[in-house]
Amino acid sequence: MVIAIGFEGSANKLGIGIMKDGVVLANPRHTYITPPGQGFLPRDTAKHHQAHALDVLQKALDEAKIKPEDIDVICYTKGPGMGAPLVSTAIVARTVAQLWQKPIIGVNHCIGHIEMGRLITGADNPTVLYVSGGNTQVIAYLEHRYRIFGETIDIAVGNCLDRFARVLKLSNDPSPGYNIEQLAKKGKKFLELPYTVKGMDVSFSGLLSYIEEKAPGLIESGEYTPEDLCFSLQETVFAMLIEITERAMAHCGSDEVLIVGGVGCNQRLQEMMGIMTEERGAKLYATDDRFCIDNGAMIAQAGWEMFRTGQTTPLQETTCTQRFRTDEVEVTWRS
Amino acid sequence: MKLIKQGAEAKIYRGDFYGRPCILKERFSKSYRQPALDRSLTAQRIKAEVRALFRCRLHGISVPTVYFVDIDSSCIYMEDITDSCTVREYIVQTQKENGDSAISQLKPLAAKIGGIVGKMHGNNILHGDLTTSNMLLRGSPLDLNIVMIDFGLSYFDSLAENKGVDLYVLERALLSTHPNTEELFTTLLEAYKQANKKGAAEVISKLDEVRMRGRKRTMVG
């Protein structure tokens, strides 16, 4: 029996989760929410994490009904992510590791998403679509690495949605993407937008510039409502994502898809992916906001897998890095 | 006509066309996307594919011959490249059978691919989806008789930036599908430089830029 605690703080969510051999004992989270029209800046986000770290940690221990001495390994997000929030969270992890005298492991954030998704859904060897505010990747496992088959060549899909939400001055509570999704449900009139797929890669920056520039005029003239534009944006970017996922599946001969990352809890994205997989005779696996959105349990779960195969990180190497590719990690826990 | 494969955007059937072995590529509508978007993408891609196939032929790049195009049903009837396997299958098999010596055995193939892509780019033909699944080896693989297929995402353009992205797509497809083939891509680029003498330097510096955008980009959340 191994109990792992995971500290996640690579973006605006601070999450601390506790896992015991594949069972979630606790997974509290606190999100830094900025006013409408504004994104989150590294410095303020770090302050938020610093202010809430101890409360969230206490809550995790209380919910799990365990004491620090029951924990076997401390896991934290090494990267990728924003520097200041990553470092603030890692300091907490390092401190408790020394206080409680426990081994510590640095975890790749993307691997955390994938392993949590596999655990929760039971998907065995899926093609993974990882979509969030900072990442857009199509990943498949091959010879001890999660290999990136396709990705965005500029901005992430979540970033594209968030930035359009800022144009419309939508609320950031609970998240800009969620509010776009709600408006899109009421949209009716489809506006054709630039659609850029390059092999298994996608590009969103041209599309974003186009809609950012056109939106104010289209809304003012009454030609399109904000709802229509959210609807058109979602339909277009998701169609691009489904297309590259399908290309990767055809290329790899895969018949399972797993969606992870914050954008992955969008119901319309899941619905579109469901139609695609059904037509191919494939299977779709997706999770809800508890595990799609950044959380501590996913870091604990990936760390648990690493610990199980004999990995730990020496204290002097428990650094953070803003740039940490999914395919840099050797996957020792899968055959 | 017998269905042999369902790719990402088309169904592939095999049969014959007035006595010739024929492949029918039918782009079917995707019910997950908006009808307006679906119609425009399907029309765009069937035209792009036929145009590129003609243009490649014009410049002496091996591609299947187009027999007939039916725009209304989004179907292309083209030559069936019989007695062939994909480059992907060939690399996988060579790596499996030969272990460490596979890379040196595959170098002539990589050079040949680089030469073809260089020639295409020299003539401003961008494939748009360069993967080892989209290249066939006809006859004995050792003859390096490569036939390029699947031009649905292709277009004509002279910008070095876009050619750089085309190479980037190929590099990523090669390295993710076939682990430990970095050396092959280097060989491929050398041949590319030879075949596209005028434009190669600028394209490769753009390739480096695009790589930086992908690999070194900070990723949050």
UniProtKB/TrEMBL annotation, chain A:
Enzyme class name: transferase
UniProt GO MF annotations: metal ion binding; tRNA N(6)-L-threonylcarbamoyladenine synthase activity
Domain called Gcp-like: residue spans: 29-300
Binding site for substrate: Y130, V131, S132, G133, G134, D162, G177, E181, N266
Alphabetical keyword list: Acyltransferase, Cytoplasm, Metal-binding, Nucleus, Transferase, tRNA processing
EC number: 2.3.1.234
Compartments in which it is found: Cytoplasm; Nucleus
Needed cofactors: a divalent metal cation
Pfam short name (any one): TsaD
Highest taxon of source: Eukaryota
Annotated binding of a divalent metal cation, by residue: H109, H113, Y130, D294
Cross-referenced PANTHER family: TRNA N6-ADENOSINE THREONYLCARBAMOYLTRANSFERASE (PTHR11735:SF14)
HAMAP family: Kae1 (MF_01446)
Name by which UniProt lists this protein: N(6)-L-threonylcarbamoyladenine synthase
Species annotation: Potamilus streckersoni
From TrEMBL, chain B:
GO cellular component: cytosol; EKC/KEOPS complex; nucleus
SUPFAM superfamilies, sorted: Protein kinase-like (PK-like)
Keywords: ATP-binding, Hydrolase, Kinase, Nucleotide-binding, Nucleus, Phosphoprotein, Serine/threonine-protein kinase, Transferase, tRNA processing
Pfam families hit by this protein: Kdo
Gene Ontology molecular function terms on file: ATP binding; hydrolase activity; protein serine/threonine kinase activity
Reaction catalyzed: L-threonyl-[protein] + ATP = O-phospho-L-threonyl-[protein] + ADP + H(+); L-seryl-[protein] + ATP = O-phospho-L-seryl-[protein] + ADP + H(+)
Subcellular location: Nucleus
GO BP terms: tRNA processing; tRNA threonylcarbamoyladenosine metabolic process
Annotated Protein kinase domain residues: 1-221
EC number: 2.7.11.1
Lineage: superkingdom: Eukaryota
Family that this chain belongs to: Belongs to the protein kinase superfamily. BUD32 family.
Complex formation: Component of the EKC/KEOPS complex composed of at least GON7, TP53RK, TPRKB, OSGEP and LAGE3; the whole complex dimerizes.
UniProt function note: Component of the EKC/KEOPS complex that is required for the formation of a threonylcarbamoyl group on adenosine at position 37 (t(6)A37) in tRNAs that read codons beginning with adenine. The complex is probably involved in the transfer of the threonylcarbamoyl moiety of threonylcarbamoyl-AMP (TC-AMP) to the N6 group of A37. TP53RK has ATPase activity in the context of the EKC/KEOPS complex and likely plays a supporting role to the catalytic subunit OSGEP. Atypical protein kinase that phosphorylates 'Ser-15' of p53/TP53 protein and may therefore participate in its activation.
Protein name, entry field: non-specific serine/threonine protein kinase
Organism listed in the record: Potamilus streckersoni
Lineage of the organism: Eukaryota, Metazoa, Spiralia, Lophotrochozoa, Mollusca
